[in-house]
Amino acid sequence: MMHASRTGHSGFSESTEEIKPLTEEEKKEQLAKIQERLKQKKAERIEQEKKELVQKEKLRRKQGKELVAVKEQHEMNEMKREAERKKREKLEEKKAKERVREQIARDKADRAAKFAKTAVPPPSIPAAASKPTEVQKKEYTQTKLQIRLTDGSTLTNSFEAKEPLAAVRVYIEVNRKDSKAPFSLMTPFPRKVFTDEDMTKPLHQLGLVPSAVLTLTKPQL
User: Fold this and answer.
1) Chain-centre distance for alpha carbon 97
2) Per-residue b/e over 103-114, b at no fewer than 16 CB within 10 Å?
3) What's the CA gap between 71 and 45, in Å, rounded?
4) 214 backbone dihedrals φ, ψ, rounded to 5°
5) pTM given for the model
6) CA-CA distances (angstroms) from residue 170 to 91, 96, 200?
7) What are the CA-CA distances from residue 130 to residues 68, 83, 122, 127, 137 (Å)?
8) pLDDT tens digits for 4-19?
9) Is-contact 171 178, C-beta < 8 A?
10) What pLDDT digit, counting tens, does each position of 103-140 carry?
């Protein structure tokens, strides 16, 4: 084969030329060519591997960006859902307070209407009566209460004298801003802590008419 490549003969029978062995110079030249081809193939393989690494890195970065985008979108959706939930809770709380206020107003109106129907006009005193007029104790129909909260702030409101103390408690629970903690009601002077049984008693019976100061204190066990 070496002879065919050197002489161009396709059949050995056609040539009677003696095949000369390669000289040292020719051997070195052939070896150098082989080494050069191997070196070139190695360089091509290294270049191909570099290209593949670059492509893999580009793909990795692309996938990383897509993953970050998906994560950010998920977090944004969660934030939107949380904001909507808080908005619904505030709206529901506002509606609940409005319902309580409306119920209190209806109860007051009903009690006022019942009181107006059952009220008996005072007897008239004849003009010719010569006896001195007796001073009658005034009956108050309303009372003004000042309520001191736990943080030092106050609430002030007017109530019907015949409303139960429970109505005052409901008013405090709806309008207070200091805390949501449970509480009892008391008068500082004279000091008196109201019990659960007092909640059904009218304000005038508890000595809270025509005005009084109430203070929030820790629940009484």
Assistant:
1) 20
2) ebeeeeeebeee
3) 39
4) -115, 145
5) 0.40
6) 20, 13, 12
7) 100, 78, 19, 8, 21
8) 555 555 555 555 566 7
9) no
10) 888 888 888 887 777 665 566 655 544 454 555 678 89
